[in-house]
Structure formats: structure tokens, C-alpha cells
Write a sequence for this structure.
């Protein structure tokens, strides 16, 4: 069940859109046309909408992307990864986890050392 509060949602969407876009523009300063790219703004806005829905549904979901040890219940290795190492070098895609119980809804894809 997704809980929606349109006024609160709109307020947070605007605030987060400004924050995320500001971070993108400062990080990718070599691309001065980003602030006028409506497609990028629409993409960021959609990402915020999905994140809002994931956080506010019951039970809530969280995105896991910082565990450094490979866990078969949470991760899948990229086929080119070292299949014998449990040390995660980087995430290609985060894991989606049910916050209350820690149940993995979708396994993240990682590269192991």
C-alpha cells in the first residue's frame, strides 16, 4: 500500500529536486548545459517520486548500497567478477530491502575483487 500526501509530497519533491540538481551541476561542472536540460530534470523528478513511494509505503523499503562484504541473500555478482572473493569493489545496482524485516525484495548487482 502506497501512502500519498500530495501537499507534503510536492513540497519535498521541489526541495529534493533543487538539492539533487544542484549537486549534479556542481559535480558535472564541465557540462554547463545541464541546468537547461529538461530531460534530466524530468528524470531526477521521477527518481524522487519513486524514492518517496518506496519510503512511504507500508512496509517501507530501503536501498542498500554500502555493505562491502558479498552476501548471497542481498547481492548477485557480475559475471566478470571474481567468483571466489567476498570483497565488494563496487555496486552496479543497489539492493532493495524491506526495512522492517530486512527481507531482500531485489538483489543488487556487484563486482567482487
Amino acid at each position: 500500500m502506497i501512502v500519498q500526501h500530495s501537499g507534503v509530497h510536492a513540497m519535498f519533491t521541489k526541495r529534493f529536486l533543487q538539492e539533487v540538481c544542484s549537486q549534479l551541476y556542481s559535480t558535472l561542472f564541465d557540462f554547463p548545459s545541464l541546468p537547461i536540460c529538461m530531460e534530466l530534470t524530468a528524470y531526477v523528478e521521477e527518481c524522487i517520486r519513486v524514492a518517496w513511494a518506496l519510503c512511504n509505503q507500508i512496509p517501507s523499503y530501503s536501498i542498500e548500497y554500502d555493505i562491502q562484504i558479498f552476501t548471497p541473500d542481498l547481492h548477485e555478482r557480475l559475471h566478470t567478477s571474481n567468483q571466489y572473493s567476498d570483497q565488494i569493489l563496487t555496486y552496479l545496482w543497489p539492493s532493495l530491502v524491506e526495512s522492517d524485516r530486512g527481507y531482500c525484495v531485489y538483489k543488487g548487482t556487484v563486482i567482487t575483487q
Q: What stands out?
A: The beta strands are 61-64, 75-77, 88-93, 95-98, 104-106, 108-112.
